[in-house]
Every structure is written in structure tokens, then in C-alpha cells.
Description:
This protein is α+β, with helices and mostly antiparallel strands. The protein has a single domain, classed as Electron Transport, Fmn-binding Protein, Chain A (Pnp Oxidase, Chain A). It is 16% helix and 40% strand. The protein contains three helices and seven strands. It has helices at residues 6-13, 56-63, 96-102, and strands at residues 18-24, 30-36, 46-52, 66-72, 83-93, 120-133, 138-141. Strands 1, 2, 3, 4, 5, 6 and 7 form a seven-stranded antiparallel β-sheet that branches. The mean pLDDT is 89.
Amino acid sequence: xxxxxxxxxxxxxxxxxxxxxxxxTQGGQIANRPMSNNGDVTYDGxxxxxxxxxxxxxxxxxxxxxxALGFTGQGGIFxxxxxxxxxxxxxLIRDKTAFQAHxxxxxxxxxxxxxxxxxxxxxxxxxxxxxxxxxxxxxxVGV
Length: 143
């Protein structure tokens, strides 16, 4: 079996908008929540997600920036499906220039004042390990 590159994985992930972001809570639990990358789907090992300053996600990342992301694509287990698990380091960004670089108009649904929404935070997740399964092949890609 030929192992895939990050470019191969990115092509397969192109239609995936939702990731499950997992963080470590203050009590030592694992918290999971769906996050949308809002069409910013050209994957190079870095992902971006918007949230509010008051979100538990922000507090969790401030306490422990080690996070995980889970992605799954369309199809059944032996068809065109792909499953990607990412271990990464999260960074909290509060810069409007960075907001603008990753903003899509669909975000206006949740953040009514756009990049000027009070308490807006951009979560950047840089992968340190990426594993994939696609029904016929599995492995890790370098980042």
C-alpha cells in the first residue's frame, strides 16, 4: 500500500467542513465539540476556527494547548470515506487582520458584527501528527 502525503489527504478532505475539536478540561476530562472551518478547507496541517472569548474552548486551550481534531468524509467504510485524526497545538488569536484573512460571509450567521464582533477569537490548530484511514489504506502523514 502506498502511503499518502499531506497533499493527498488535503484533496480527500476538500469537502469536509466540520471537525470535532477535542480539548482537555480543567477537571482532566476530554471535551468535544463540532467546529466549522467555514469553507477554509485547503488543508496543509493548520486549521482555523472562530469562537467567542467566553467559550469553554478558549479556557481549555489557555490551560492546555494540546488538542485533537477528527474529520470524516462522505461514503461508507469501503467506498470514498476518509477518516482523519489530528493531534495538534492550538493558539488563540485576537487580531482582526487574522480574522479578515479567514473570514467567510457564512460566519455572519453566528458572529453578527463580522470581524468586529465583541470577544471574537480565532483558534489556530497546527498539526503535530496526522493519521488517516480510508477503508483500504491507513497511515500517518508528515507535517
